C-alpha cells in the first residue's frame, strides 16, 4: 500500500490495521477509552509545534491528530454507530449552519451581528443534542441539560475552571471586582493551612483545589489566561533549572553532586541574568 494525499488511503490503512485476521495485534486491542489519552496528547503536540513556530513539525502533528479522528471513526463504524464520512458531514453541516452570513443570502452587517448569530445557532444545536440524548433513553441529568454541562469534563482542570466561571458569569453569578477574590483566596489558603495542621489528606486535596479555583477566578477578572500564565512559568522554571545544570556541568559536576544551597545560589544567578 502506497502513501497518498487522498484521505481515502488513510481510511484504508486504518481499516487494514483493524482487520481481525490480518491486522495489527496492538490496534485490534484498542477501544475508544484506550485511544482517548493519545487523542488529547496529539492535540497538545499540535499546540506545542505552534508555540515553537515549527511548521514542519506542525504538518506532522496535524497528521497524527487527523489519525486520531480516523481511529475513533473506524471504531464507531465497527459498532455500526457512524462512519468517517458522517463525521465530515456533521462538521460541514455545522459550519455552514453557524455561518449564515457567509453561506446564505442573509448576511450579518458586522462582526457583532455575526457573533450574535453564532451564539443563537449554538444554543439551538445544544437543545437539539439534548433532545437526541433524551430520545436515546438518557436521564435529564445525563442529557447535559444543566447550565454548565456544556463545559467538557476532559479539559485541563485549570482551563475548565476558567470556562465554568465564564459561563456562570453570564447569568450574573460573579464577583464585580478583583479585590473580593483576593480575600477569598486568603480565606481558602487559611482553610488549607487548617487541613495541613489536621494532617487530613482528603481535606488538603479539597482545599488545595479551592485555592487553585479561586486563583483561576482572579486571573479571569484580570484578563489573564491561567493556563498560559502557568505555561510561561513552566518555561521560566525549565530555563533557570537548565542554567543551574549547565553551570554545574562546566564545573565538572552533576546535579546529584550539588547541595541544595549550591543549587539555590546558581538559581539566583539565573534569575538575575
TrEMBL record:
One of its GO terms (biological process) is dUTP catabolic process. It catalyses: ATP + H2O = AMP + diphosphate + H(+). CDD domains: NTP-PPase_MazG_Cterm, NTP-PPase_MazG_Nterm. Keywords: Hydrolase. It comes from the Bacteria. Transmembrane segments: none annotated. Gene3D superfamilies: MazG-like (1.10.287.1080). This is Nucleoside triphosphate pyrophosphohydrolase. It comes from Tianweitania sediminis. The lineage of its organism: Bacteria, Pseudomonadati, Pseudomonadota, Alphaproteobacteria, Hyphomicrobiales.
